[in-house]
Amino acid sequence: MSNSDGHSNSDPITGGRHESLGHVGIETSDGDLRNVYERWATTFNQDIEDDVKYVGHLSVCQVVVQYFPKEESSGTSQGSKGQRSSLKVIDIGAGTGLVGSLLAPEGFSQIDALDFSPKMLSKAGELGVYTSLIEANLNEELKIEKSSYDLAISAGTFTLGHVTAKCIPNILSVLKPGGLFIFTVREDLMQSEELKKFYGFPEYLKELESVGVLECVEQKDEMPYHLLAGKSFDRALNCTVFVCKKL
Ligand SMILES: C[S@@+](CC[C@H](N)C(=O)[O-])C[C@H]1O[C@@H](n2cnc3c(N)ncnc32)[C@H](O)[C@@H]1O
Fold first, then answer.
1. Domains of the chain (ranges, CATH numbers)
2. Would the pLDDT of 22 be above 90?
């Protein structure tokens, strides 16, 4: 079975993605990817629910609430200090705001959304859960106050044809020392040598760890991501959720 671009679904480089992502692969430019999301914003939520039952946002938020438990419960050691409402949070590659819609009812009340697609950001803004909407490209230096956030979260942004681990220093630049970056990496990015080398997981994280930039606090493999194979994949997909601390 082939996709519209003629590649087999099992092709590790270009196969296996929602049809709206068209020809997106490792060669796709930032401008072309942004255009894809500009066109997709209005139907994104429905498409990913109907097609693959995407749950990457649920997986990452499940980890976030464990690290930042409600005040009355005893939390894990790394992220438990402070009330959820006092934490400054940034949702990286926020898209239509699925992460914010889960975290706001949990008591996180200062969440900013960052994305390079104005139309995706506009959908996120309609939810009324984000404090501000930040249009920015993760592959460029972020023009955001340095060391200003307690927590950065990302769901679904480290995936085929999107950003690689090389943008992580940009994300860390806006985190306070000791702040956590909790994010998904779709499992296929770490399943072939070629994609591992291109996207940099987990090797580039280890490099950053060896030079004292971050600490990998936890790596949770086999977290649910796509519950169904859908039209463009030949199987359901899991993800890894990484928990990294800025040093
Ligand atoms: C698959 S969507 C995930 C959206 C949302 N986090 C979710 O879980 O539904 C990926 C998002 O990352 C954004 N994105 C991709 N590359 C980016 C980049 N270089 N800079 C900023 N945003 C980017 C896209 O615009 C898109 O909204």
1. 19-246 (3.40.50.150)
2. no
